[in-house]
Design brief:
The protein has a seven-stranded mixed β-sheet with strand order 3-4-5-6-7-8-9, with helices on both faces. Helix 1 packs antiparallel against helix 2. By secondary structure, it is α+β, with helices and mostly antiparallel strands. It folds into two domains: about 130 residues, Fructose-1,6-Bisphosphatase, Chain A, domain 1 (2-Layer Sandwich); about 110 residues, D-Maltodextrin-Binding Protein, domain 2, CATH 3.40.190.80. The protein has six helices and 14 strands.
Length: about 250
């Protein structure tokens, strides 16, 4: 059975590939959707992660962002992986990107690690064992939204969600200290988990964006669901809202 320490070591090794990247723009391809890109390093990091993780746990299935076909994840163990969360940031040299590895057991988050190589911060959690950053326990802030920061994702690949997204941004802007936008949902979730922000939402994310981060938030004492209030699912794209507020976001 793989350990959380082995996952941590793996994501940190993958992060070093990002730090050593050169001529990133030379290997950029466009994917379906507005401003949706993949670099040669996304593929290189995913290949590294798949090889390493499957050696450590061959009984698991591997679901990576840069694959066209994804296996079923409802039974047994499944790695849900984003090799570089924040690809546009990575392309532009805007150093807010992360490696994200979630491990599901029978469709439910079991372990997760998110590594920001630029700050050398690794956030991680195991179900029922709390959440940590670089070995130190973390917890959501517990502050009211009026004294909190709201992080938003703009779902740029999905034009049909723009109006609703910016309507919600204005709603939370009026009820919080301010709004932030980083470009990495995995890190946004970790910032809620560590009490750096009180709320995060995005109108559509894919499972590899939140499989690890959602566990880290809940183990840090926060709540995560769809914007509509439904439980998360990990077999398709959904909306995500994570709260570390004193009260539920629905009560603000």
């Amino acid at each position: 059975m793989i350990t959380i320490q082995q996952i941590i070591e793996t994501v940190k090794a993958a992060g070093r590939i990002m730090l050593e990247a050169k001529d990133i723009a030379a290997g950029v391809e466009e994917k379906e959707g507005h401003a949706n890109f993949v670099t040669a390093y996304d593929k290189k990091v995913q290949e590294f992660l798949e090889a390493k993780l499957m050696r450590l746990m061959p009984e698991a299935v591997f679901v990576g962002e840069e694959e066209e076909d994804h296996p079923a994840i409802r039974e047994g163990y499944a790695f849900i992986v984003d090799p570089i969360d924040g690809t546009t940031n990575f392309m532009k040299g805007y150093c807010v990107s992360a490696v994200s590895v979630g491990l599901l057991k029978d469709g439910v988050p079991f372990m997760g690690a998110v590594y920001n190589p630029y700050l050398d911060e690794v956030f991680y959690a195991e179900a029922g064992k709390g959440a940590f950053c670089n070995g130190k326990p973390i917890h959501v802030s517990g502050k009211p939204l009026a004294k909190g920061i709201v992080i938003v994702g703009t779902a740029p690949y999905y034009r049909e969600l723009y109006d609703k997204t910016f309507e919600m941004i204005r709603y939370y802007f009026d009820r919080s200290l301010d709004i932030r936008r980083s470009g990495s949902a995995a890190l946004d979730l970790c910032n809620v988990a560590s009490g750096r922000a009180e709320l995060f939402f995005e109108m559509r994310l894919q499972p590899w964006d939140f499989a690890a981060g959602s566990l880290i938030v809940t183990e840090a004492g926060g709540t995560v669901s769809t914007v509509e209030g439904e439980p998360l699912r990990f077999d398709r794209g959904i909306s995500v809202i994570a709260s570390g507020c004193e009260k539920s976001f629905l009560e603000n």
